[in-house]
Amino acid sequence: PVWLPLSTRVLWVPGAGLVGAGLGRWCRPVRRFLIGRRRMEEAAARRAKEVFFDIGVSRPKGRRGVLLFSSRRERRVVVLADDAVRSRVQPEAWHAAVAAMTTAAAEGRVAEGLVAAVEKLAQALRAAGLTGRGGGELGDAPLTGDGR
């Protein structure tokens, strides 16, 4: 019949669109697939830079701040270092910390991964001659949530 193709278009196409939108909104694996790897990496890096400056990691006199940023939604870990640290530590030194965090988090051991990542960061800083005795200008309390 003539009305069948029209009813198919009127009912099924918008229905499929609503189902797809619902999956994209409430189903994390589908949302992550739709967003894409590159956009997730960019979003995590952008937010890490915002937090780096918002919480004042760049304010200490020696410019020796290091931020370990973990984003659950994007499943990314970003390490940002201030000027004095970047001049003495190669960016490849951070890969061990990122790997320790992501491996443990993938197994559901987020807290252990965070501790392992901090230990790897400390090893890289000690190897570069940075002792961490900067006067405690940033404090020792970890920040959670959106970095505020």
Explain what you see.
With 148 residues, the protein is mainly alpha-helical. The protein contains 6 helices and 2 strands; from the N terminus they run αααββααα. β1 and β2 (76-81) form a beta hairpin. The radius of gyration is 22 Å and the shape is elongated.
Q: Which overall shape is indicated by the principal axes computed on the Cα atoms?
A: elongated
Order of H and E elements:
HHHEEHHH
What is the number of helices? 6
> How many runs of DSSP E, i.e. beta strands?
2
Low-confidence stretches are none
Residue-averaged pLDDT, rounded? 81
Instruction: Kindly report how far apart the N and C termini lie.
Output: 62 Å
Structural class: mainly alpha
Spatial strand sequence of the major β-sheet: 1-2
Q: State the major sheet.
A: 2 strands, antiparallel
Radius of gyration: 22 Å
Q: Into which percentage range does the β-strand content fall?
A: 5-15%
Helix fraction by DSSP (H/I, runs of at least 4): 55-70%
List the helices and strands and how they pair.
Elements: H1 3-26, H2 28-35, H3 37-54, E1 66-71, E2 76-81, H4 83-86, H5 95-106, H6 110-127
Antiparallel strand pairs: 1-2
